[in-house]
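Researcher: Let's do a round of design. I'm pasting the structure tokens now; please hold your answer until I've finished.
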């Protein structure tokens, strides 16, 4: 007797296959998990599991671009799966496709209204898009669903700070710290809120938490000598100051060097090599050296050390008198005259330098730096010769200015504004004025005494005593 029944073909992966993928994924064996997930997508292309697993694997592996297609396929195959839409939103946000990420999170929330992380990440996306009031509501919804959500409380604080509601921001940060007292990111963000409220001592104390941030741990220098606590006498002692951030911060904080030199027997500053000539000329009684970390654990040429970001904290009694000081950087006089002659070759003055964006742009940074098209009210002032002080990624913007506004912003092609900073300082000294966003060129221009107009978002985290230029030439 012949059996006419056809063998039934499965349309979904076996429980063994599912379990093996999950076990490999949870144990961090991503290569094995990837291979098995791919084989499942080939064997069962219309089943969601393989695609969903593959998207998650790539996401955890840091292969975000690779995660996109499987995450999209997962959401298409199971349109009622809230988690699939949420996972897609995560991938899209990491790829900075924020409008699409917003839609994915909203779809997840429609399907699962109490999805805490969807509300939280929607808030983060809306904040990056600059829609702060909507971001606030999303964070508050996440917190209402999960009151102990410290990340949401932290980002709610950031949003409220950007809205200028500093008291509410502080309350949100402190609620997070009640739940997690050692949350370094919250302490760090709270520091800016306090500084923006002119509560300097509290803010500078909180700023010390920066060394607990994961991104900063590798940049901290470890010496046998103690950190100066601001109280021990430096009379007859040697102190090493060391740069910890970019050259703009180093140059800005170097305004404190004369005070430190008056307190210590000998002051050493280690900083980025390209600013050594400028600082050595400006502070001849201080030993200025390029940073060298190779001997940190064996050095014996100083008694105390201090990162430059802590200078204001220990000089707090002098901060008031340190603000609105005169120019403190001395450009090369020969090069300054050279640039005056070069400017004269461009035509009649006054000569105004402009800089409009950071070299490091991201969705978060974009709101601090409006596009060059929004500078038209500056660039259309008549009878001005404009000079580029942007040190990277400016060629297309200069073309757009000429095409859309009809103004030429002159660029000196033979000046490497990123590396030859001593010459940049000389050029800034030769200019009649500088108009700049909150970027390094305004530190050069204000510190050499050139009148400088700062275009800065008032509620910015960077609008504080730590980052604002100190010279009376800046406003």
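Researcher: That's everything. Go ahead.
Model: Designed sequence:
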């Amino acid at each position: 007797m012949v059996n006419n029944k056809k063998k039934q073909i499965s349309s979904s992966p076996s429980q063994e296959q599912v379990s093996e993928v999950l076990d490999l994924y949870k144990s961090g064996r991503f290569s094995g998990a990837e291979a098995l997930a791919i084989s499942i997508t080939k064997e069962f292309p219309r089943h969601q599991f393989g695609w969903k697993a593959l998207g998650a694997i790539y996401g955890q592996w840091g292969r975000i671009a690779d995660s996109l297609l499987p995450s999209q396929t997962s959401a298409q195959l199971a349109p009622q799966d809230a988690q699939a839409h949420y996972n897609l939103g995560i991938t899209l946000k990491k790829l900075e496709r924020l409008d699409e990420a917003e839609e994915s999170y909203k779809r997840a929330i429609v399907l699962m209204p109490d999805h805490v992380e969807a509300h939280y990440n929607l808030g983060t996306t809306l904040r990056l898009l600059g829609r702060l009031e909507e971001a606030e509501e999303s964070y508050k919804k996440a917190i209402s669903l999960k009151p102990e959500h410290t990340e949401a409380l932290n980002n709610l604080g950031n949003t409220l700070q950007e809205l200028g509601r500093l008291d509410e921001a502080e309350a949100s940060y402190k609620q997070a710290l009640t739940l997690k007292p050692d949350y370094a990111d919250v302490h760090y963000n709270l520091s800016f809120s306090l500084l923006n409220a002119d509560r300097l001592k509290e803010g500078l104390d909180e700023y010390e938490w920066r060394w607990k941030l994961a991104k900063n741990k590798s940049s901290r220098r470890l010496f046998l000598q103690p950190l100066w606590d601001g109280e021990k006498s430096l009379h007859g002692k040697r102190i090493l100051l060391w740069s910890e951030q970019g050259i703009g911060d180093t140059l800005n904080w170097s305004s404190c060097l004369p005070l430190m030199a008056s307190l210590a027997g000998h002051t050493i500053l280690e900083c980025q090599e390209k600013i050594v000539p400028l600082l050595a000329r400006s502070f001849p009684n201080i030993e200025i050296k390029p940073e060298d970390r190779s001997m940190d654990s064996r050095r014996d040429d100083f008694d105390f050390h201090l990162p430059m970001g802590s200078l204001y904290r220990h000089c707090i009694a002098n901060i008031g008198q340190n603000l609105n000081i005169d120019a403190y950087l001395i450009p090369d006089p020969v090069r300054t005259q050279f640039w005056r002659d070069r400017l004269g070759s461009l035509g009649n003055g006054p000569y105004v330098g402009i800089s409009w964006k950071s070299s490091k742009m991201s969705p978060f940074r974009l709101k601090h730096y409006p596009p060059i098209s929004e500078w038209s009210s500056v660039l259309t002032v008549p009878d001005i010769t404009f000079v580029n002080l942007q040190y990277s990624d400016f060629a297309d913007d200069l073309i757009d200015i000429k095409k859309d506004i009809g103004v030429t912003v002159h660029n000196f092609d033979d000046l490497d504004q990123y590396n030859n900073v001593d010459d940049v300082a000389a050029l800034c000294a030769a200019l009649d004025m500088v108009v700049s966003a909150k970027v390094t060129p305004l530190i050069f221009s204000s510190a050499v005494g050139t009148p400088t107009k700062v275009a800065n978002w008032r509620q910015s985290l960077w609008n504080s005593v730590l980052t604002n230029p100190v010279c009376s030439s800046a406003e």
